[in-house]
User: Fold Flagellar M-ring N-terminal domain-containing protein from Magnetofaba australis IT-1.
Amino acid sequence: MFQKIVHDGHEVPQDALLVVTIPKISLRGRNGLLIAAVTTAVIIAAIVWFGSRAPYEPLLRNLTEVEAGQVIAQLEKQGVPYRLEAHNSISIPADMVRKARIDLAMAGAPKDPSSVGWELFDNKSAWELAR
Assistant:
C-alpha cells in the first residue's frame, strides 16, 4: 500500500517525507517557501490584530480647545481610551460611548467659559431679556 522510502540506507516513516524532501528543494525554492510562510504569518497576525481592536466612534465633535481639554481630563480620570482627531473631535471605543456621555454630563464637561447657553436665563428677568 505505502511505498518504502529509503534515505541514506535507512527506512524512513511515511510522515517524515517532508523532512526528507525539503533538503532536495533548490535554494531558490526554499527561499520562496520561506517568503510564503513569513507572508502568511504576517497576514494572519494583521487579521487577528485588526480584528481584535475595538471600533472607535465619535464621542464629541468640533470642541474648543478648552472643552477638549476638559473632556480628555475626565476620560483619563475614568481610564477611558480615546483618540483626538481632526477639528478637536474625540473618539472612544464604540461600546463605551453612551456611558461616557452620561458620565461627562454628570461631571459638567464640556463647559467652555466663553460660551453662553441656557444659563443666560438664570440671572435675568424676562423684561431684561426682552430688551
